[in-house]
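Database export, one record per block. Field names are fixed; values are copied verbatim from the stored entry.
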Amino acid sequence: MLWIGVYCFANSFANLASEKIGINSSVTCMVNLLLSLALLQWIRSNGLMTYFGLCKSPVPASKFLWYLPLALFASTNLWLGIGRNLPLPDMVCYMLSMLCVGFLEEVIFRGFLFKALAKDNVKTAIIISSVTFGLGHILNLFNGSGMGLVDNLLQVVGAVACGFLFVIIFHRGGSLIPCILAHGINNALSVFANEAVMTLQLQLLLFVCILVIVVTYALILLKTLPKR
């Protein structure tokens, strides 16, 4: 819980500082990189790399359908074409920051929070970690990201669904690496989203497609992967 608080508030203040500097995600990139390094060093020094899933999964990739649905999810920001929404320095800072976010959020919500709760009840842990991850995105309404209410509500619902999928992958497969990669790449590629053609109808259609992919994949894995 301490890490969730530190991460959320550090990013909120870093986003505001980046906005004042005038380079998108400049401060946020440095903050997330430092948090990622600190978190990785703490996990490694305590011999918890395998415990928190920073290792290769012992379950064959074929059992996960070779992670193809994850790759499809990671590419969703490119489905409507490629746009350039930021100058090059802003774009680099944003992408680096989002790659770090993928690592931080997976370790904090799937690693720390889920593993702590799962000691008492796995089903409760899956629900709480997924919902907490989704609700955490409400901060985007207030942290200077410029996100509107409708966009934020869709993001929250989508994040709950993605959180559910990622925790199933981690719990059944023992590795967070596929989740970190899919999460980080999806976030980073959002800088290339073709916002010029994004109408409300297309946004809703894209949201429904992502939801179908994520929920269907999660249900398939629940049925096919061995229980741990």
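Remark 1: The chain is about 70% helix and 0% strand.
Remark 2: Residues 134 and 160 are 4 Å apart (CA to CA).
End of record.
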